[in-house]
Write a structure and sequence with these properties.
The complex is a heterodimer.
Chain A lengths: L4 H16 L5 H24 L5 E4 L10 E4 L1 H28 L4 H18 L3 H19 L5 H32 L4 H7 L5 H19 L7 H8 L2 H27 L4 H23 L4 H22 L2 H32 L15 H14 L6 H15 L3 H26 L14 H16 L6 H16 L3 H7 L2 E2 L2
Chain B lengths: L1 H19 L3 H23 L21 H32 L13
Classes of the chains: A mainly alpha, B mainly alpha.
């Protein structure tokens, strides 16, 4: 029964904010913080309370072949928890950061719409509904990228909007083909009907979806929009986009469609492997040369998405475990790094690593947490990034893919090199900087410290006792592939 | 069959425009064409030979009807497209204010 509230709460908050907020943003801040903390509590509660069952909710009580169905299983709740954690900290971080830009309620309204879109994409069990929620998320993302109203931001937002629309149309073509082949839009029904049809349909539709959702996930040949959009947006929005949007709209939907609906066809798993490896290597090579801190981080998003795709492509339970774990970890440390970049940008007014210096004295929290996040993303124990990358590499070796494992190790080493550059020039440089343009408030520090603590805490998820209750149900949902059909069609009905 | 082929050509025209045009407004129009092609595809999938509009009324004989669901989908997708176009046009206006040009090759402060 709590299922529809993941959409209702943020959507309602977005509209109430636009109604009651006056010129100032006080009410908008209060309402959006209430809404996102409610979502955080709800998602944690639903993740803890449900173990391995699948709950469905039919909208307006129209039963499955006719109406839209919302589906919640372990994978859904896991991704919802991820989105809620990042959106909550992002919102706390935004309060001061956005006031620094303008005192406007529109930001919070758009932010809540972004969360609505992502939550909708995650819990829906219907193809066209997925498309609609995806567009809601994308619209607010375009607007939020352009929020700072500088020339570069409009340029990035235009590029992003063009690429986003093209990929959405590709996805709509895919959905149209699926509908004409199976006469249904419910994912579970589609999965049930597809094996009885000609095998070529899966290949055609899969190729279209791979291009469409690949563009959303910014895997390698489709990555061109990401560095611009993610580096131009305001820092909390960069962390939302890099941390969760590309995963909710790209990776999560790809997992759902290729594993649970198409039953993981061999060809596409190979494509995942190859695209993942290319993304790891080229993303990190492009990142090393950057001097703009946020642009460097944006290129690293491409590279880290490559690890997740690699894990998905290996397709053994261990590979999937690594991919799912890395999905969560990347959301945490990449968001933290973008907060760091945002707080440096606010304090010094620059993102250029050459103009930074020794910030240990001026911004102690920022530089300490950035150290944790850098160690985490480059895979140094005991931080979470180490464990997920290790699992992916071991899985690749076990599956008899030593070359892919080697490339993953090389990518990890290069990541370490590029973050040594960030630390060397950006936070521990020679010139000690004494004066800041703006002070960093406690709310921004709170957001950074929370995520830094989570960087350490989430590495506990591989401890045997804890892994069985957190990651294993998620892996089971993915590895069981089309068992999804029985779970949804014969599952518990929540209404 | 020929209709599907024409529809596919329309889609390619849109894609060609997005990829090759240098003018912001032409890119936006190409995205519009791409959207029309996709909507047309949905409607074509719903079409059945020798059938009528899908409304049942009293005293009407029951005869083959076209599939009504894609028509509902197309309505939604048209609304979404309106939003996309409005957003793109707004961004183009803002870009013109900042750069004083619609030429995409001159709007390139972001690189690397």
């Amino acid at each position: 029964m709590i299922l529809p509230y993941f959409i209702i709460i943020p959507l309602l908050a977005a509209f109430i904010i636009s109604l009651i907020a006056g010129k100032k943003d006080n009410w908008a801040v209060i309402l959006s913080v209430i809404a996102s903390s409610a979502l955080l509590v709800l998602s944690l509660f639903s993740f803890i309370s449900m173990k391995e069952e699948t709950i469905t909710y039919s909208m307006s009580a129209w039963s499955i072949p006719y109406g839209i169905v919302l589906v919640q299983d372990a994978l859904t709740s896991f991704i919802l928890v991820m989105v809620s954690i990042i959106s909550f900290t992002s919102l706390i971080f935004s309060i001061q950061y956005i006031r620094h830009l303008s005192m406007d309620w529109k930001y919070y309204s758009l932010f809540m719409l972004l969360v609505t879109g992502m939550n909708g994409v995650i819990i829906t069990g219907d193809f066209f509904n997925l498309y609609v929620f995806m567009e809601i998320a994308l619209f607010s993302a375009f607007a939020l990228v352009a929020y700072g109203s500088r020339a570069e931001e409009f340029e990035a937002a235009f590029k992003y909007a063009v690429m986003g629309s093209v990929s959405s149309f590709l996805i709509l073509v895919g959905i149209a083909v699926v509908y004409s082949a199976t006469s249904t839009l419910t994912m579970a029904k589609v999965a049930q009907i597809l094996p009885t049809l000609n095998n070529e349909i899966v290949l055609w539709v899969g190729a279209i979806f791979m291009a469409g959702f690949g563009l959303k996930a910014a895997s390698m040949p489709f990555h061109a929009w990401l560095p611009d959009a993610h580096s131009s947006a305001p820092a909390p929005i960069s962390s939302m986009l890099s941390g969760v949007l590309i995963k909710a709209l790209g990776i999560y939907v790809m997992i759902r469609i290729f594993y649970n609906v198409f039953n993981a066809p061999e060809v596409f798993m190979k494509i995942f492997l190859v695209l993942g490896t290319i993304s790891i290597l080229i993303g990190v090579f492009l990142a090393i040369g950057q001097w703009d801190m946020k642009r460097l981080l944006a290129y690293h998003s491409i590279s880290q998405i490559g690890y997740i795709l690699l894990g998905m492509g290996i397709a053994t339970p261990l590979g999937i475990l690594g991919a799912v774990f890395h999905l969560f970890n990347h959301a945490i440390f990449k968001s933290l790094l973008f907060y760091n970049a945002g707080s440096v940008e606010m304090a010094l007014g620059t993102r250029d690593l050459r103009k930074m210096g020794n910030l240990m004295k001026l911004l102690p929290t920022t530089s300490q947490t950035s150290l944790i996040a850098s160690l985490s993303i480059s895979g140094i124990p005991p931080f979470n990034g180490f464990f997920s990358k290790l699992i992916i590499i071991i899985a690749a070796l076990q599956a008899g893919l030593p070359w892919y494992a080697l490339f993953a190790v090389i990518g990890s080493l290069l990541t370490l090199a590029s973050f040594m550059k960030v630390q060397r020039y950006g936070f521990k440089g020679e010139t000690v900087i004494e004066t800041a343009e703006n002070k960093i408030g406690w709310r921004m520090n709170f957001a950074m410290i929370t995520l830094a603590v989570l960087c350490v805490v989430t590495s506990l998820m591989v401890v045997p006792g804890i892994q069985e209750v957190t990651l294993d149900p998620v892996v089971k949902v993915i590895a069981n592939k089309t068992e999804y059909i029985q779970l949804v069609l014969g599952g518990l009905n929540g209404n | 069959m020929i209709v599907y082929l024409l529809c596919f050509i329309l889609l390619l025209v849109g894609l060609y425009g997005v990829l090759t045009k240098r003018d912001l407004i032409k890119i936006i129009l190409s995205i519009g064409i791409l959207g029309y092609a996709v909507n047309l595809l949905l409607i074509l999938f719903a079409y059945r030979n020798n059938s009528i509009y899908p409304i049942l009324s009293k005293g009407k004989e029951i005869s083959p009807m076209v599939d009504p669901l894609p028509q509902a989908l197309v309505l939604t997708s048209i609304v979404i497209e309106l939003g996309t176009t409005a957003m793109l046009v707004a961004l183009a206006v803002k870009l013109f204010e900042k750069y004083n040009t619609f030429d995409i090759t001159e709007i390139r402060r972001l690189k690397g």
